[in-house]
Amino acid sequence: LSHALRTPRSHRTASSVVGLGRRSTMAAQCAASAVVSRVAAPRPAKALKAAGAAPVRSATHRARRVGGRGVIRATGAPKDEDVVRVPRPEYIPNKIDDPNYVRVFDTTLRDGEQSPGATLTSKEKLDIARNLAKLGVDIIEAGFPIASPDDLEAVRNIAKNVGNEVYPDGYVPVICGLSRANKKDIDAAWEGVRHAKRPRIHTFIATSKIHMESKLRKTPDEVVQIAVDGVTYARSLGCEDVEFSPEDAGRSDPEFLYRILAAVVEAGATTLNIPDTVGICLPEEFGQLIAGIKANVPGQYVISTHCQNDLGLSTANSLAGVANGARQVECTINGIGERAGNASLEEVAMSIWMRGQEKIFGAYTGINPVYIYPCSKMVREYSGMSVQPHKAIVGANAFAHESGIHQDGMLKNKQTYEIIAPETIGYFRGEGDVGVVMGKHSGRHALKSKLMQLGFPLEGDELNEMFDRFKLVAEQKTGGVGDDEIIALVTSGAGQGDDTAVTWKLDEVQVVCGTMGLPTATVKMTGPDAVTRINSAVGTGPVDAAYKAIDGLCRVKVDLVEYTVNAVVEGIESLAQTRVSIRAKSDQNIPGAMMKANVQTGNVEARTFMATGADSDIVVSSARAYVAALNRMISFMRSNAETVATEAVIDIVAEEEEKKAAAA
User: Is-contact 487 454, C-beta < 8 A?
Assistant: First the structure.
């Protein structure tokens, strides 16, 4: 089995291609064969055939032989139907038939959303969950259902949709809901996930001395009993897949861990998740903790890791856990999460993809890497959490080469400085291979093709609106519009809201400013009722004046938490990209739904809503971002109000039925 799973290096990295032009040209030639016929799978073709996954090649993805190695010439992202998904063992909650297989548990929608400033709408969560399913994660932790009616509805929506969308190979993700170890939380979690084909409840309680004494104010015996009662109750609801986490396991007494973990396994827990909640462990230390649990806790279960990044060791600790017997890793897209974040899914997955066969005892995952970059991009735009340029795998500089020595090596053989072909993770760079330069003479079809290559398949009205904005920018620029600027345009105002009926649209902006007179802005907007309105306001500057004019029309009281503006590319003609963060004004009575609870600390804070805008004019860019953020907040408030009303009606009906039953 180990031999069958070992992938030749030529299947993982780019083949030698000579003749590179500028930094991004000819890059599509060097896409690893993982993109199509062996896309993302750490197995040779023989193993794929044995697993029942026949290689597929489309007209735009034809392999040829160069220097004795398989090379794919790709014009853009492969279609979903052309991607051969990675074979994986049959899902059984408390065991994995293949001892080398490592499950990937994604908690972007739960722990990731706990990042300060990150708020996702229900529709955005559903979109991300669908992309995570394409990516091939085994478990999606969809949220913390008890936190609010909106969180519960979002989890339920994902369970009903993504949790029931079975792929042709039989894959369907497990949908998980988090709960504290009490009946009310567990009931909410089960209500959220029970609609999925494979539901899971994830319950937890702290086990470190400092947490038990200072936070819980419970004795070790009481904590063990609470944990056992929680797992037992979750199983009694009909949930056959229950995960238990001893919070702050990294600082817990190992002997106490063995005791509580053995007790919950006996009570019915199928997965034991070991969190380094404060990111204090070193890799060797965390690996020993996992090995100790495997050796001292009897029963049938899967060991999982959950590593925070407070010391920058989350990826290293996760891999140390896998090397010592863990067969599930918990992580998030882009590593977002509480404080310094979580283990980054792309880093953990690609580390196992690159080195798991050789250095981690044959470990492999079911991740399809070609969807990594699109997922990263979606999470970045929806959450408003930017990715640092030098971030591994998905950062802007991850596949950039400026050093002369490096450039020389890349021109001769890309493997000199790139261990992963960018196309392997779904990043299709460059225009040199197809000779298309996007400018004012480019047509709608050319823009549609370019957007498809960049991972934004737009159709109909969305394409028409994007084309109009593109032409306005292109007519003002010399030298064409770059990829980064097109991405900024298409993502400008991402997350306008779940319901277009409640969206404000910015039509026109005009400002007067300078050293003479007061800065004044006039805005023209179309409201949710399709009525066009105009308002003017003065401010301390042109952006402040524009925001006050917008406030006068939308009439939503907010505080501007963050405002940043950056040039998308170098040069005076660059587009400006603005990112804003807003929250409900603190001097008003904020509805409970607009507050967000922290799972670990229990603290409640106002939700923040982020959005971006892009335009060649800084004021227009700023106005677009602000309106998009307002739309997200308005949409969230409306959807949550409808959810609360629905829940109230259900409660009233249930109460009436109980009264009738009692009377009968």
Answer: yes
Burial 481-510 (b: 16+ CB within 10 A, else e): bbbbbbbbbbbbbbbbbbbeebbbbbeebe
- Please give the helix or strand (H or E) that residue 644 lies within, else none: helix 618-663
Can you give the pTM of this predicted structure? Answer: 0.73
Helix axes 460-474, 483-491, angle to 10 degrees: 130
- The dihedral through the CA atoms of 389, 11, 27, 442 has a sign that is negative
Q: Which of 208, 200, 202, 220 is nearest to 276 (CA)?
A: 208
Top mean-pLDDT range of 224-238, 420-434, 524-538: 224-238
What is the distance between the alpha carbons of residues 163 and 145, in angstroms, rounded to a whole number? 16
pLDDT confidence band for 632 (50 / 70 / 90): confident
d(CA 18, CA 23): 13
Which candidate, 332, 344, 372, places its Cα nearest to that of 86? 372
Q: The dihedral of CA 554, 380, 592, 649: what is its sign?
A: positive
**The dihedral of CA 386, 494, 347, 75: what is its sign?**
negative
Helix residue spans in 394-526 (DSSP H): 404-412, 444-453, 460-474, 483-491
Amino acid at 46: K
What kind and span of H or E run contains 188?
Answer: helix 183-193
Can you read off the two tokens belonging to residue 535? 């308002």
Whether pLDDT at 495 is above 60 = no
Residue 349: which of 42, 63, 128, 114 has the closest Cα?
42
Instruction: Return the pLDDT at 256.
Output: 98
Give 265-331 as a 3 state SS string: HHHCCCEEEEEECCCCCCHHHHHHHHHHHHHHCCCCCEEEEEEECCCCCHHHHHHHHHHCCCCEEEE
> What is the sign, positive or negative, of the torsion defined by CA atoms of 397, 399, 401, 406?
positive
